[in-house]
């Protein structure tokens, strides 16, 4: 027969210290495995009469390129129409769906072939950009506006809420055309000096 006092002493001696919560960590990223798809960055083919190159580099807080990020873009077509057609993941070469997905290269660079969006409801044209990257526990939203639409920037309901000294991070840079194709550069800085403005949308 076991003595009750002996059992209580054994239990007391084996009680462990309170467990401490370990730091949270992100799992992955696994973006390069299944999410990129054939012609995902090509919202229109390169020979489209209104094709533009929309590209840039994604960098971290230290200014180093992020080589495993994934970007998605959503936009209107050149007439300002928000297209709602299927086919984003199965490009047929002519249907514009307004959606594209591109991974970054080893140099942190991404490129889309698309069209410059037209104005929607009289507002400044823009491309909505979503960023997925290592260390980012929730995807980030931002917008890329176009420099030639500065007259509309002053009345844009989103851009005007951004402090004047930060708006430049949302304006793409027009570059010399490549083989007749207009080119716009939109670099994304996740942290630090000149950090890109990210948007918070209410659910």
TrEMBL record:
- Give the enzyme class: oxidoreductase
Q: Which residues form the Intradiol ring-cleavage dioxygenases domain?
A: 50-192
Q: What is this protein called?
A: Protocatechuate 3,4-dioxygenase subunit alpha
SUPFAM superfamilies associated with the record: Aromatic compound dioxygenase
Q: Which UniProt keywords apply?
A: Dioxygenase, Oxidoreductase
Q: What is the residue range of the signal peptide feature?
A: none
- Family designation: Belongs to the intradiol ring-cleavage dioxygenase family.
Which molecular function term from Gene Ontology is one that the record holds?
Answer: protocatechuate 3,4-dioxygenase activity
**EC numbers:** 1.13.11.3
Question: Is Amino-acid biosynthesis tagged as a keyword?
Answer: no
Protein's organism: Cryobacterium frigoriphilum
